[in-house]
């Protein structure tokens, strides 16, 4: 019986159990491409799955992990052949389909994108879903016609994964980036990534007026809730906000004032089911637009045996930037 190492989540009488274990290859789910996984990463959603704090896992047993880079081992899909280097983000892996914290994965070929030429597997996972979501946010703002000439760009949840990459991408695109963080002690880190100004997230977390002073032309918001409401109310006339996260809560206690009095647009960002063409566009841009010399300070590396503890850390807001997992 062939086995491989994986993080395994089982349902228990109360909640779930999670452990590094041997997984039987026969338990792999349907798919036309089998991948030898080399690198994965840690996202907020992985933290929710690993701890069971939100019902992210929809079948048991489950291997969590929503992102991987690996090499195709076997394929009956005409688009992929043995030896191809591939990236997977989302599509329900780690939720409904066995995921990335494993030496092996079997998935649908249509979920995969090629690892961009010139990007290493470790770099791609330093980007991961968080960074690819930051790029989807930038693409959405660009498609809305927002340019650096319109004014500053705000990033909330700045020291987190989405936030860190969003700062680097917006700065590279020429924006004056304002970083909103609860960890003002990370000011130097945020400035190295490209932030021009740092604000305390407390400024945005208390209930505010329906319309405030116009402070930024656009924003990438990974926090949601009251923060997103305040971000909208302080967005300049004709500006746009890419809403991609809920680290501060799922609700949106806002009014229609920014939309109907300032023509502000709220752009929804989903990485999980994003169509192939958009994914490929995002990864192409990530390969050209990220300055790796700036991003080194963003990356921490752990092994598969450290993933369970790291899952709690990310929910406790203790993780800075991005964590890559060497499988
Ligand atoms: P991280 O935990 O790395 O970052 C989240 C950051 O949000 C924290 O670092 C912290 O930043 C800030 N934050 C945390 N709690 C609060 C709070 N209560 N109030 C205000 N700010 C808070 O997570 P990721 O960057 O991986 O993900 C960020 C969000 O984006 C998550 O909600 C995640 O689910 C979502 N997401 C959505 C995707 C999509 O497809 N739409 C894809 C990927 C992620 P600081 O310390 O700087 O204040």
Automatic annotation (TrEMBL):
Keyword Lipid biosynthesis: no
Keyword Oxidoreductase: yes
Pfam family, one: ADH_zinc_N
Residue spans crossing the bilayer: none
EC number: 1.3.1.84
EC supergroup of this enzyme: oxidoreductase
Domain of life: Bacteria
Domain Enoyl reductase (ER): start-end pairs: 15-325
InterPro entries recorded: Acrylyl-CoA_reductase_AcuI, ADH-like_C, ADH-like_N, ER, GroES-like_sf, NAD(P)-bd_dom_sf, Zn-ADH-like_protein
Keywords on record: Oxidoreductase
Gene Ontology MF term list: acryloyl-CoA reductase (NADPH) activity
Recorded coiled-coil stretches: none
Protein name as it appears in the record: Acrylyl-CoA reductase AcuI
Organism of origin: Variibacter gotjawalensis
Gene transcribed to yield this protein: acuI
